Amino acid sequence: MSERQFGDVVLSFDNVSISFGAVAALTGISFDVHEHEIVAIIGPNGAGKTTALNVINGVYQPTDGTITYKGEVRTRMRPHEAAVKGIARTFQNVALFKGMSTLDNIMTGRNLKMKSNLFAQGLFWGPAQREEIEHRQAVEKVIDFLEIESIRKTNVGRLPFGLQKRVELGRALAAEPEILLLDEPMAGMNLEEKEDMCRFILDVNDELGTTIVLIEHDMSVVMDISDRVIVLEYGRKISEGIPEVVRSDQKVIDAYLGVTH
Amino acid sequence: MHPELAFFIEVLIAGLLSGVMYSLVALGFVLIFKASGIFNFAQGAMVLFAALTFVRILEMGVNFWLAIAIALAVMIVMAVIIERVMLRPLVAQPVIILFMATIGLNYFIEGFAQAVWDADVHGLDVGIPDVPWMALLDSTNILVSLFDIWSAVICGVLVLVLAYFFQKGRIGRALRAVADDNQAAMSVGIPLQQIWAIVWAVAGIVALVAGALWGQRLGVQFSISLVALKALPVLILGGFNSIAGAIVGGLIIGAVEKVAEVYLGPIIGGGIESWSAYFIAMLFLIFRPQGLFGEEIIERV
Protein backbone atom coordinates (compact mmCIF):
# COMPACT_ATOMS: atom_id res chain seq x y z
CA MET A 1 0.00 0.00 0.00
CA SER A 2 3.04 2.21 0.06
CA GLU A 3 2.40 3.63 -3.41
CA ARG A 4 -0.98 5.07 -2.46
CA GLN A 5 -1.43 8.74 -3.35
CA PHE A 6 -3.60 11.12 -1.33
CA GLY A 7 -4.89 14.57 -2.17
CA ASP A 8 -5.28 17.69 -0.07
CA VAL A 9 -6.85 17.83 3.36
CA VAL A 10 -10.60 17.58 2.81
CA LEU A 11 -11.83 17.43 6.39
CA SER A 12 -10.14 18.76 9.44
CA PHE A 13 -11.02 18.77 13.15
CA ASP A 14 -9.30 21.47 15.17
CA ASN A 15 -9.58 21.08 18.91
CA VAL A 16 -13.17 19.86 18.70
CA SER A 17 -15.01 19.23 21.96
CA ILE A 18 -18.57 18.29 22.61
CA SER A 19 -20.33 17.68 25.86
CA PHE A 20 -23.83 16.66 26.79
CA GLY A 21 -24.58 18.39 30.07
CA ALA A 22 -21.74 17.44 32.39
CA VAL A 23 -20.58 14.53 30.23
CA ALA A 24 -17.68 15.35 27.93
CA ALA A 25 -18.08 13.06 24.91
CA LEU A 26 -15.13 14.46 22.96
CA THR A 27 -12.34 16.61 24.34
CA GLY A 28 -9.93 18.62 22.19
CA ILE A 29 -9.89 16.31 19.19
CA SER A 30 -7.76 17.34 16.20
CA PHE A 31 -7.10 15.36 13.05
CA ASP A 32 -7.01 15.72 9.27
CA VAL A 33 -8.52 13.52 6.60
CA HIS A 34 -7.01 13.68 3.10
CA GLU A 35 -8.76 13.04 -0.19
CA HIS A 36 -8.87 9.36 -1.22
CA GLU A 37 -7.70 8.27 2.22
CA ILE A 38 -9.21 5.46 4.30
CA VAL A 39 -9.12 6.55 7.94
CA ALA A 40 -10.21 4.29 10.77
CA ILE A 41 -11.36 5.55 14.15
CA ILE A 42 -10.94 2.92 16.84
CA GLY A 43 -11.19 2.75 20.59
CA PRO A 44 -12.92 0.91 23.43
CA ASN A 45 -16.69 1.17 23.93
CA GLY A 46 -17.75 4.65 24.92
CA ALA A 47 -14.60 6.26 23.54
CA GLY A 48 -16.63 8.72 21.44
CA LYS A 49 -16.21 7.14 18.01
CA THR A 50 -19.84 7.36 16.92
CA THR A 51 -20.06 10.86 18.42
CA ALA A 52 -17.17 11.87 16.16
CA LEU A 53 -19.06 10.60 13.09
CA ASN A 54 -22.23 12.32 14.29
CA VAL A 55 -20.34 15.59 14.51
CA ILE A 56 -18.99 15.17 10.97
CA ASN A 57 -22.45 14.70 9.45
CA GLY A 58 -24.14 17.34 11.55
CA VAL A 59 -26.23 15.30 13.97
CA TYR A 60 -24.39 17.06 16.81
CA GLN A 61 -22.80 20.51 16.83
CA PRO A 62 -19.44 20.80 18.57
CA THR A 63 -19.50 22.85 21.77
CA ASP A 64 -15.96 24.04 21.07
CA GLY A 65 -13.39 23.98 18.28
CA THR A 66 -13.76 24.24 14.52
CA ILE A 67 -14.40 21.86 11.68
CA THR A 68 -13.06 22.73 8.25
CA TYR A 69 -14.59 20.93 5.31
CA LYS A 70 -13.26 21.46 1.78
CA GLY A 71 -11.46 24.60 2.88
CA GLU A 72 -14.52 26.15 4.49
CA VAL A 73 -14.96 26.56 8.22
CA ARG A 74 -18.23 24.97 9.02
CA THR A 75 -20.69 26.53 11.40
CA ARG A 76 -23.98 24.95 12.38
CA MET A 77 -25.01 22.28 9.96
CA ARG A 78 -27.90 19.84 9.86
CA PRO A 79 -27.57 16.27 8.60
CA HIS A 80 -29.41 16.94 5.34
CA GLU A 81 -27.13 19.91 4.67
CA ALA A 82 -24.12 17.67 5.23
CA ALA A 83 -25.64 15.28 2.71
CA VAL A 84 -26.00 18.14 0.22
CA LYS A 85 -22.29 18.86 0.62
CA GLY A 86 -21.29 15.32 -0.22
CA ILE A 87 -21.18 13.49 3.09
CA ALA A 88 -22.97 10.14 3.18
CA ARG A 89 -23.03 7.62 6.00
CA THR A 90 -24.17 4.29 7.36
CA PHE A 91 -25.26 3.59 10.91
CA GLN A 92 -24.09 1.22 13.62
CA ASN A 93 -27.45 -0.51 13.99
CA VAL A 94 -28.50 -0.14 10.33
CA ALA A 95 -31.02 2.60 9.73
CA LEU A 96 -32.75 1.38 6.58
CA PHE A 97 -36.33 2.18 5.67
CA LYS A 98 -37.76 -1.15 6.80
CA GLY A 99 -41.04 -0.92 4.96
CA MET A 100 -39.39 -0.40 1.57
CA SER A 101 -37.66 -2.65 -0.97
CA THR A 102 -33.90 -2.75 -1.54
CA LEU A 103 -34.39 -0.79 -4.74
CA ASP A 104 -36.50 1.94 -3.10
CA ASN A 105 -34.04 2.23 -0.22
CA ILE A 106 -31.15 2.80 -2.58
CA MET A 107 -33.28 5.18 -4.65
CA THR A 108 -33.69 7.42 -1.59
CA GLY A 109 -29.92 7.89 -1.84
CA ARG A 110 -30.54 9.63 -5.18
CA ASN A 111 -33.00 12.04 -3.57
CA LEU A 112 -30.62 15.00 -3.71
CA LYS A 113 -29.81 14.46 -7.35
CA MET A 114 -33.45 14.62 -8.40
CA LYS A 115 -34.56 18.03 -9.49
CA SER A 116 -38.08 18.00 -10.91
CA ASN A 117 -40.49 20.17 -9.01
CA LEU A 118 -42.97 19.27 -6.35
CA PHE A 119 -46.01 19.58 -8.56
CA ALA A 120 -44.72 17.29 -11.29
CA GLN A 121 -43.52 14.93 -8.56
CA GLY A 122 -46.88 14.83 -6.87
CA LEU A 123 -48.60 13.79 -10.06
CA PHE A 124 -45.60 11.79 -11.22
CA TRP A 125 -45.84 12.86 -14.82
CA GLY A 126 -43.52 13.82 -17.70
CA PRO A 127 -40.20 15.11 -16.40
CA ALA A 128 -40.60 13.37 -13.06
CA GLN A 129 -41.07 10.03 -14.75
CA ARG A 130 -38.10 10.52 -17.10
CA GLU A 131 -35.96 11.55 -14.18
CA GLU A 132 -36.99 8.47 -12.24
CA ILE A 133 -35.81 6.23 -15.07
CA GLU A 134 -32.51 8.07 -15.36
CA HIS A 135 -31.77 7.63 -11.67
CA ARG A 136 -32.94 4.09 -11.75
CA GLN A 137 -29.99 3.36 -14.05
CA ALA A 138 -27.51 4.83 -11.59
CA VAL A 139 -29.06 2.72 -8.84
CA GLU A 140 -28.81 -0.42 -10.95
CA LYS A 141 -25.07 0.20 -11.23
CA VAL A 142 -24.78 0.35 -7.46
CA ILE A 143 -26.82 -2.85 -7.18
CA ASP A 144 -24.51 -4.60 -9.66
CA PHE A 145 -21.45 -3.31 -7.87
CA LEU A 146 -22.59 -4.66 -4.51
CA GLU A 147 -23.83 -7.92 -6.05
CA ILE A 148 -27.32 -7.65 -4.61
CA GLU A 149 -29.32 -8.13 -7.84
CA SER A 150 -31.27 -11.03 -6.41
CA ILE A 151 -32.75 -9.03 -3.52
CA ARG A 152 -33.67 -5.98 -5.59
CA LYS A 153 -37.40 -6.25 -4.89
CA THR A 154 -37.17 -7.76 -1.42
CA ASN A 155 -38.44 -5.79 1.54
CA VAL A 156 -35.28 -4.94 3.49
CA GLY A 157 -36.92 -5.76 6.83
CA ARG A 158 -36.79 -9.42 5.78
CA LEU A 159 -33.10 -9.48 4.88
CA PRO A 160 -30.41 -10.91 7.17
CA PHE A 161 -28.32 -8.32 8.99
CA GLY A 162 -25.25 -8.76 6.77
CA LEU A 163 -27.23 -8.00 3.62
CA GLN A 164 -28.97 -5.05 5.29
CA LYS A 165 -25.54 -3.54 5.93
CA ARG A 166 -24.75 -3.99 2.26
CA VAL A 167 -27.99 -2.30 1.18
CA GLU A 168 -27.25 0.56 3.55
CA LEU A 169 -23.82 0.96 1.94
CA GLY A 170 -25.60 0.99 -1.42
CA ARG A 171 -27.91 3.79 -0.30
CA ALA A 172 -24.90 5.85 0.78
CA LEU A 173 -23.07 5.13 -2.49
CA ALA A 174 -26.08 6.10 -4.60
CA ALA A 175 -25.57 9.68 -3.41
CA GLU A 176 -22.09 9.64 -5.02
CA PRO A 177 -20.54 11.12 -1.86
CA GLU A 178 -17.12 12.68 -1.52
CA ILE A 179 -16.77 11.39 2.01
CA LEU A 180 -18.29 8.14 3.15
CA LEU A 181 -18.75 7.60 6.87
CA LEU A 182 -19.14 3.96 7.90
CA ASP A 183 -20.14 3.13 11.45
CA GLU A 184 -19.03 -0.46 12.13
CA PRO A 185 -19.67 -1.74 8.61
CA MET A 186 -18.72 -5.29 9.61
CA ALA A 187 -20.49 -5.64 12.95
CA GLY A 188 -22.40 -8.90 13.26
CA MET A 189 -21.01 -10.40 10.06
CA ASN A 190 -19.43 -13.79 9.49
CA LEU A 191 -15.97 -14.12 7.98
CA GLU A 192 -17.13 -14.41 4.39
CA GLU A 193 -19.42 -11.39 4.69
CA LYS A 194 -16.60 -9.40 6.25
CA GLU A 195 -14.29 -10.27 3.36
CA ASP A 196 -16.95 -9.16 0.87
CA MET A 197 -17.48 -5.89 2.73
CA CYS A 198 -13.71 -5.21 2.85
CA ARG A 199 -13.53 -5.77 -0.89
CA PHE A 200 -16.43 -3.36 -1.51
CA ILE A 201 -14.88 -0.67 0.68
CA LEU A 202 -11.51 -0.97 -1.03
CA ASP A 203 -13.14 -0.97 -4.48
CA VAL A 204 -15.19 2.13 -3.70
CA ASN A 205 -12.07 3.90 -2.51
CA ASP A 206 -10.01 2.70 -5.45
CA GLU A 207 -12.46 3.03 -8.36
CA LEU A 208 -14.48 6.05 -7.30
CA GLY A 209 -11.78 7.80 -5.30
CA THR A 210 -14.16 8.23 -2.36
CA THR A 211 -12.63 9.29 0.93
CA ILE A 212 -13.66 6.93 3.72
CA VAL A 213 -13.84 7.41 7.49
CA LEU A 214 -14.83 4.25 9.30
CA ILE A 215 -15.32 2.90 12.79
CA GLU A 216 -14.57 -0.77 13.28
CA HIS A 217 -13.94 -3.17 16.13
CA ASP A 218 -12.35 -5.99 14.16
CA MET A 219 -8.66 -5.12 14.47
CA SER A 220 -7.45 -7.36 11.65
CA VAL A 221 -9.87 -5.59 9.30
CA VAL A 222 -8.78 -2.15 10.51
CA MET A 223 -5.11 -2.97 10.11
CA ASP A 224 -5.69 -4.44 6.64
CA ILE A 225 -7.66 -1.71 4.95
CA SER A 226 -6.85 1.60 6.66
CA ASP A 227 -4.22 4.06 5.56
CA ARG A 228 -4.28 5.74 8.93
CA VAL A 229 -5.74 4.92 12.32
CA ILE A 230 -6.98 7.34 14.98
CA VAL A 231 -7.39 5.93 18.49
CA LEU A 232 -9.83 7.45 20.96
CA GLU A 233 -10.23 6.70 24.65
CA TYR A 234 -12.68 8.46 26.97
CA GLY A 235 -13.27 11.13 24.33
CA ARG A 236 -9.58 11.98 23.88
CA LYS A 237 -7.24 11.11 21.05
CA ILE A 238 -4.48 8.90 22.45
CA SER A 239 -2.73 7.86 19.26
CA GLU A 240 -2.69 8.37 15.50
CA GLY A 241 -0.65 7.00 12.64
CA ILE A 242 -0.25 4.23 10.10
CA PRO A 243 -1.55 0.85 11.32
CA GLU A 244 1.91 -0.60 12.06
CA VAL A 245 2.77 2.28 14.38
CA VAL A 246 -0.56 2.38 16.17
CA ARG A 247 -0.51 -1.37 16.70
CA SER A 248 2.69 -1.21 18.70
CA ASP A 249 1.84 1.99 20.61
CA GLN A 250 1.95 1.14 24.31
CA LYS A 251 -0.90 3.57 25.11
CA VAL A 252 -3.16 1.80 22.62
CA ILE A 253 -2.29 -1.62 23.99
CA ASP A 254 -3.02 -0.37 27.51
CA ALA A 255 -6.34 1.13 26.45
CA TYR A 256 -7.48 -2.14 24.93
CA LEU A 257 -6.13 -4.53 27.55
CA GLY A 258 -6.71 -2.23 30.49
CA VAL A 259 -3.99 -1.26 32.95
CA THR A 260 -4.17 -0.16 36.54
CA HIS A 261 -3.18 3.48 36.59
CA MET B 1 -86.84 -8.20 -1.92
CA HIS B 2 -88.03 -9.23 1.50
CA PRO B 3 -88.82 -6.01 3.40
CA GLU B 4 -86.87 -7.14 6.51
CA LEU B 5 -83.78 -7.86 4.44
CA ALA B 6 -84.16 -4.64 2.49
CA PHE B 7 -84.36 -2.76 5.77
CA PHE B 8 -81.24 -4.46 7.12
CA ILE B 9 -79.29 -3.63 3.96
CA GLU B 10 -80.53 -0.07 4.19
CA VAL B 11 -79.29 0.26 7.76
CA LEU B 12 -75.98 -1.37 6.87
CA ILE B 13 -75.39 0.91 3.89
CA ALA B 14 -76.33 3.99 5.87
CA GLY B 15 -73.84 2.88 8.52
CA LEU B 16 -71.07 2.20 6.03
CA LEU B 17 -71.60 5.56 4.38
CA SER B 18 -71.51 7.49 7.63
CA GLY B 19 -68.40 5.45 8.38
CA VAL B 20 -66.82 6.98 5.28
CA MET B 21 -67.07 10.35 7.00
CA TYR B 22 -65.29 9.00 10.06
CA SER B 23 -62.62 7.56 7.78
CA LEU B 24 -62.00 10.99 6.28
CA VAL B 25 -61.28 12.51 9.67
CA ALA B 26 -59.18 9.52 10.73
CA LEU B 27 -57.15 9.82 7.54
CA GLY B 28 -55.86 13.24 8.60
CA PHE B 29 -54.58 11.73 11.85
CA VAL B 30 -52.92 8.81 10.09
CA LEU B 31 -51.03 10.99 7.60
CA ILE B 32 -49.35 13.02 10.32
CA PHE B 33 -48.78 10.04 12.58
CA LYS B 34 -47.11 8.08 9.80
CA ALA B 35 -44.70 10.83 8.87
CA SER B 36 -43.76 12.06 12.31
CA GLY B 37 -45.08 9.75 15.00
CA ILE B 38 -47.14 12.64 16.35
CA PHE B 39 -50.75 12.15 17.32
CA ASN B 40 -52.15 15.46 16.11
CA PHE B 41 -54.73 16.44 18.69
CA ALA B 42 -55.57 19.52 16.61
CA GLN B 43 -56.98 17.57 13.64
CA GLY B 44 -60.56 18.25 14.74
CA ALA B 45 -59.83 21.96 15.07
CA MET B 46 -58.31 21.90 11.58
CA VAL B 47 -61.55 20.39 10.25
CA LEU B 48 -63.50 23.21 11.92
CA PHE B 49 -61.13 25.90 10.67
CA ALA B 50 -61.18 24.56 7.10
CA ALA B 51 -64.96 24.33 7.01
CA LEU B 52 -65.43 27.78 8.54
CA THR B 53 -62.98 29.35 6.13
CA PHE B 54 -64.71 27.69 3.21
CA VAL B 55 -68.26 28.60 4.25
CA ARG B 56 -67.42 32.21 5.11
CA ILE B 57 -65.68 32.76 1.79
CA LEU B 58 -68.71 31.27 0.03
CA GLU B 59 -70.97 33.62 1.97
CA MET B 60 -69.01 36.57 0.60
CA GLY B 61 -70.42 35.61 -2.77
CA VAL B 62 -67.24 34.05 -4.12
CA ASN B 63 -67.58 31.42 -6.83
CA PHE B 64 -67.74 27.85 -5.46
CA TRP B 65 -64.53 26.56 -7.08
CA LEU B 66 -62.62 29.72 -6.29
CA ALA B 67 -63.72 29.38 -2.67
CA ILE B 68 -62.36 25.83 -2.63
CA ALA B 69 -59.08 27.03 -4.10
CA ILE B 70 -58.76 29.81 -1.52
CA ALA B 71 -59.61 27.47 1.36
CA LEU B 72 -57.01 24.98 0.06
CA ALA B 73 -54.41 27.73 -0.12
CA VAL B 74 -55.25 28.82 3.44
CA MET B 75 -54.80 25.24 4.73
CA ILE B 76 -51.43 24.96 2.97
CA VAL B 77 -50.22 28.27 4.38
CA MET B 78 -51.38 27.17 7.81
CA ALA B 79 -49.36 23.95 7.49
CA VAL B 80 -46.23 25.88 6.57
CA ILE B 81 -46.71 28.23 9.52
CA ILE B 82 -47.29 25.34 11.94
CA GLU B 83 -44.09 23.68 10.72
CA ARG B 84 -42.08 26.90 11.07
CA VAL B 85 -43.40 28.11 14.38
CA MET B 86 -44.24 24.94 16.26
CA LEU B 87 -42.57 21.85 14.80
CA ARG B 88 -39.16 23.15 13.80
CA PRO B 89 -38.11 24.38 17.25
CA LEU B 90 -39.26 21.05 18.69
CA VAL B 91 -37.31 18.80 16.32
CA ALA B 92 -35.68 15.90 18.17
CA GLN B 93 -37.87 16.45 21.24
CA PRO B 94 -39.69 13.42 22.64
CA VAL B 95 -42.98 12.63 20.92
CA ILE B 96 -44.97 13.41 24.07
CA ILE B 97 -43.72 17.03 23.93
CA LEU B 98 -44.94 17.35 20.36
CA PHE B 99 -48.26 15.81 21.34
CA MET B 100 -48.66 18.40 24.10
CA ALA B 101 -47.86 21.10 21.57
CA THR B 102 -50.69 19.88 19.35
CA ILE B 103 -53.10 20.16 22.32
CA GLY B 104 -52.13 23.81 22.58
CA LEU B 105 -52.44 24.15 18.84
CA ASN B 106 -55.94 22.67 19.01
CA TYR B 107 -57.20 25.39 21.37
CA PHE B 108 -55.38 28.08 19.45
CA ILE B 109 -56.94 27.09 16.12
CA GLU B 110 -60.40 26.75 17.66
CA GLY B 111 -60.17 30.22 19.14
CA PHE B 112 -58.52 31.69 16.08
CA ALA B 113 -61.14 30.24 13.73
CA GLN B 114 -63.98 31.75 15.72
CA ALA B 115 -62.20 35.06 16.22
CA VAL B 116 -61.42 35.55 12.54
CA TRP B 117 -64.74 34.24 11.30
CA ASP B 118 -67.43 33.88 13.94
CA ALA B 119 -69.05 31.39 16.28
CA ASP B 120 -72.44 31.16 14.57
CA VAL B 121 -73.93 28.15 12.86
CA HIS B 122 -73.54 28.40 9.10
CA GLY B 123 -75.50 26.35 6.66
CA LEU B 124 -73.32 24.97 3.91
CA ASP B 125 -74.48 23.68 0.56
CA VAL B 126 -71.75 21.99 -1.43
CA GLY B 127 -74.17 21.43 -4.28
CA ILE B 128 -74.95 17.79 -3.63
CA PRO B 129 -78.61 17.29 -2.72
CA ASP B 130 -79.30 15.26 0.42
CA VAL B 131 -82.18 13.28 -1.13
CA PRO B 132 -82.88 9.57 -1.62
CA TRP B 133 -81.42 7.85 -4.64
CA MET B 134 -84.71 7.25 -6.47
CA ALA B 135 -83.48 4.65 -8.96
CA LEU B 136 -82.29 2.41 -6.16
CA LEU B 137 -85.37 3.07 -4.05
CA ASP B 138 -87.71 2.13 -6.90
CA SER B 139 -85.92 -1.03 -7.95
CA THR B 140 -84.92 -2.55 -4.58
CA ASN B 141 -86.86 -0.58 -2.02
CA ILE B 142 -83.62 0.44 -0.29
CA LEU B 143 -83.37 4.04 0.83
CA VAL B 144 -79.93 5.59 0.43
CA SER B 145 -79.07 9.28 0.32
CA LEU B 146 -77.39 10.52 -2.84
CA PHE B 147 -75.29 12.81 -0.69
CA ASP B 148 -73.84 9.81 1.15
CA ILE B 149 -73.02 8.10 -2.12
CA TRP B 150 -71.22 11.20 -3.36
CA SER B 151 -69.31 11.53 -0.10
CA ALA B 152 -68.14 7.95 -0.49
CA VAL B 153 -67.02 8.59 -4.07
CA ILE B 154 -65.13 11.74 -3.10
CA CYS B 155 -63.50 9.96 -0.19
CA GLY B 156 -62.55 7.04 -2.44
CA VAL B 157 -60.94 9.30 -5.01
CA LEU B 158 -59.07 11.17 -2.29
CA VAL B 159 -57.69 7.93 -0.86
CA LEU B 160 -56.58 6.71 -4.29
CA VAL B 161 -54.80 10.00 -4.98
CA LEU B 162 -53.09 9.88 -1.59
CA ALA B 163 -52.04 6.26 -2.03
CA TYR B 164 -50.57 7.16 -5.42
CA PHE B 165 -48.82 10.22 -4.01
CA PHE B 166 -47.28 8.12 -1.22
CA GLN B 167 -46.23 5.32 -3.53
CA LYS B 168 -44.66 7.02 -6.52
CA GLY B 169 -41.57 9.04 -7.29
CA ARG B 170 -39.22 11.06 -5.16
CA ILE B 171 -41.70 12.72 -2.82
CA GLY B 172 -43.58 9.51 -2.16
CA ARG B 173 -40.35 7.73 -1.37
CA ALA B 174 -39.18 10.59 0.82
CA LEU B 175 -42.49 10.52 2.73
CA ARG B 176 -42.19 6.82 3.38
CA ALA B 177 -38.52 7.21 4.30
CA VAL B 178 -39.30 9.90 6.87
CA ALA B 179 -42.11 7.75 8.24
CA ASP B 180 -39.66 4.87 8.69
CA ASP B 181 -36.61 6.57 10.17
CA ASN B 182 -36.10 10.33 10.66
CA GLN B 183 -32.35 10.17 11.28
CA ALA B 184 -31.59 7.98 8.28
CA ALA B 185 -33.83 10.10 6.08
CA MET B 186 -31.89 13.23 6.99
CA SER B 187 -28.57 11.47 6.38
CA VAL B 188 -29.52 10.83 2.75
CA GLY B 189 -30.42 14.49 2.37
CA ILE B 190 -34.18 14.44 2.79
CA PRO B 191 -35.17 17.74 4.40
CA LEU B 192 -37.39 16.76 7.30
CA GLN B 193 -38.91 20.24 7.53
CA GLN B 194 -40.13 20.23 3.96
CA ILE B 195 -41.65 16.78 4.30
CA TRP B 196 -43.42 17.74 7.52
CA ALA B 197 -44.86 20.85 5.87
CA ILE B 198 -46.13 18.72 2.98
CA VAL B 199 -47.72 16.18 5.31
CA TRP B 200 -49.46 18.86 7.39
CA ALA B 201 -50.65 20.54 4.21
CA VAL B 202 -52.12 17.25 2.95
CA ALA B 203 -53.73 16.68 6.35
CA GLY B 204 -55.16 20.21 6.05
CA ILE B 205 -56.60 19.40 2.62
CA VAL B 206 -58.16 16.21 3.97
CA ALA B 207 -59.56 18.32 6.83
CA LEU B 208 -61.15 20.67 4.29
CA VAL B 209 -62.86 17.82 2.45
CA ALA B 210 -64.07 16.33 5.73
CA GLY B 211 -65.18 19.74 6.97
CA ALA B 212 -67.15 20.53 3.83
CA LEU B 213 -68.98 17.19 3.83
CA TRP B 214 -69.67 17.19 7.58
CA GLY B 215 -70.58 20.85 7.30
CA GLN B 216 -73.37 20.18 4.84
CA ARG B 217 -74.77 17.47 7.15
CA LEU B 218 -74.49 19.22 10.51
CA GLY B 219 -74.03 22.85 9.60
CA VAL B 220 -70.65 24.47 10.09
CA GLN B 221 -70.32 25.17 13.80
CA PHE B 222 -68.06 24.61 16.75
CA SER B 223 -69.29 21.07 17.44
CA ILE B 224 -67.84 19.95 14.12
CA SER B 225 -64.42 19.86 15.76
CA LEU B 226 -65.76 17.12 18.03
CA VAL B 227 -66.02 14.66 15.14
CA ALA B 228 -62.35 14.14 15.86
CA LEU B 229 -63.45 12.17 18.90
CA LYS B 230 -65.23 9.74 16.59
CA ALA B 231 -61.98 9.26 14.72
CA LEU B 232 -60.29 7.89 17.83
CA PRO B 233 -62.03 4.50 17.90
CA VAL B 234 -61.53 4.33 14.13
CA LEU B 235 -57.78 4.76 14.64
CA ILE B 236 -57.65 2.18 17.41
CA LEU B 237 -59.46 -0.26 15.14
CA GLY B 238 -57.51 0.43 11.99
CA GLY B 239 -54.09 1.11 13.42
CA PHE B 240 -52.54 4.54 13.74
CA ASN B 241 -50.17 4.20 10.81
CA SER B 242 -52.32 2.56 8.16
CA ILE B 243 -54.24 4.49 5.50
CA ALA B 244 -56.16 1.32 4.63
CA GLY B 245 -56.83 0.86 8.33
CA ALA B 246 -58.39 4.30 8.62
CA ILE B 247 -60.79 3.45 5.79
CA VAL B 248 -61.76 -0.03 6.92
CA GLY B 249 -61.88 1.08 10.56
CA GLY B 250 -64.24 3.92 9.68
CA LEU B 251 -66.53 1.61 7.70
CA ILE B 252 -66.69 -0.94 10.52
CA ILE B 253 -67.38 1.67 13.20
CA GLY B 254 -70.05 3.33 11.08
CA ALA B 255 -71.78 0.03 10.26
CA VAL B 256 -71.65 -1.33 13.81
CA GLU B 257 -73.02 1.91 15.26
CA LYS B 258 -76.06 1.96 13.01
CA VAL B 259 -76.81 -1.76 13.15
CA ALA B 260 -76.43 -1.80 16.94
CA GLU B 261 -78.69 1.23 17.33
CA VAL B 262 -81.43 -0.23 15.19
CA TYR B 263 -81.35 -3.87 16.30
CA LEU B 264 -79.92 -3.79 19.83
CA GLY B 265 -81.36 -0.41 20.76
CA PRO B 266 -84.90 -1.62 21.44
CA ILE B 267 -83.57 -4.50 23.59
CA ILE B 268 -81.04 -2.76 25.85
CA GLY B 269 -82.21 0.79 25.47
CA GLY B 270 -81.45 3.46 22.89
CA GLY B 271 -78.44 5.71 22.56
CA ILE B 272 -76.07 2.87 21.72
CA GLU B 273 -74.87 4.77 18.69
CA SER B 274 -72.98 7.22 20.83
CA TRP B 275 -70.94 4.69 22.80
CA SER B 276 -70.76 1.46 20.79
CA ALA B 277 -67.72 2.71 18.84
CA TYR B 278 -65.77 3.24 22.04
CA PHE B 279 -66.84 -0.16 23.31
CA ILE B 280 -65.41 -1.83 20.18
CA ALA B 281 -62.27 0.25 20.52
CA MET B 282 -61.87 -0.99 24.08
CA LEU B 283 -62.19 -4.62 22.99
CA PHE B 284 -59.52 -3.98 20.38
CA LEU B 285 -57.22 -2.37 22.91
CA ILE B 286 -57.46 -5.50 25.02
CA PHE B 287 -57.15 -8.14 22.31
CA ARG B 288 -55.38 -6.49 19.38
CA PRO B 289 -53.76 -3.24 20.49
CA GLN B 290 -51.95 -2.65 17.20
CA GLY B 291 -55.28 -2.51 15.36
CA LEU B 292 -56.33 -4.41 12.25
CA PHE B 293 -53.59 -3.11 9.97
CA GLY B 294 -51.12 -1.42 12.29
CA GLU B 295 -47.56 -2.59 12.54
CA GLU B 296 -47.04 -4.91 15.44
CA ILE B 297 -44.51 -3.44 17.79
CA ILE B 298 -41.81 -5.96 18.47
CA GLU B 299 -39.29 -5.01 21.11
CA ARG B 300 -35.87 -6.51 20.83
CA VAL B 301 -35.05 -7.90 24.26
SSE sequence of chain B, one letter per element: HHHHHHHHHHHH
Radius of gyration of chain A: 19 Å
CATH topology of the largest domain in chain A: Rossmann fold
Seen as an oligomer or otherwise, the chain set is heterodimer
Termini Cα gap of chain A: 37 Å
Report what the structure shows.
- The complex is a heterodimer of chains A (261) and B (301).
- With 261 residues, chain A is of the alpha/beta class.
- Chain A folds into 2 domains: 1-86 and 177-261, Rossmann fold; 99-176, no CATH class.
- Chain A has 10 helices and 10 strands.
- Chain A has a 6-stranded mixed beta sheet, with helices on both faces. In chain A, strands 2-1-4-5 form a 4-stranded antiparallel beta sheet, covered by helices on one side.
- In chain A, strand 7 (179-183), helix 7 (191-208) and strand 8 (211-215) form a beta-alpha-beta unit.
- In chain A, helix 3 (102-108) runs parallel beside helix 6 (161-174).
- Chain A is globular, with a radius of gyration of 19 Å.
- The relative contact order of chain A is 0.18.
- The model of chain A has no long low-confidence stretch (mean pLDDT 87).
- With 301 residues, chain B is mostly helical.
- Chain B has one domain (3-121, 146-287): ABC transporter involved in vitamin B12 uptake, BtuC (Orthogonal Bundle), CATH 1.10.3470.
- Helices cover 73% and strands 0% of the residues of chain B.
- Chain B has helices at 3-36, 43-59, 64-87, 95-116, 134-140, 146-167, 169-180, 182-187, 192-218, 227-238, 243-268, 276-287.
- Chain B is globular and about 65 Å long.
- The relative contact order of chain B is 0.19.
- The mean pLDDT of chain B is 86.
- The interface between A and B is medium-sized, with 36 and 25 residues.
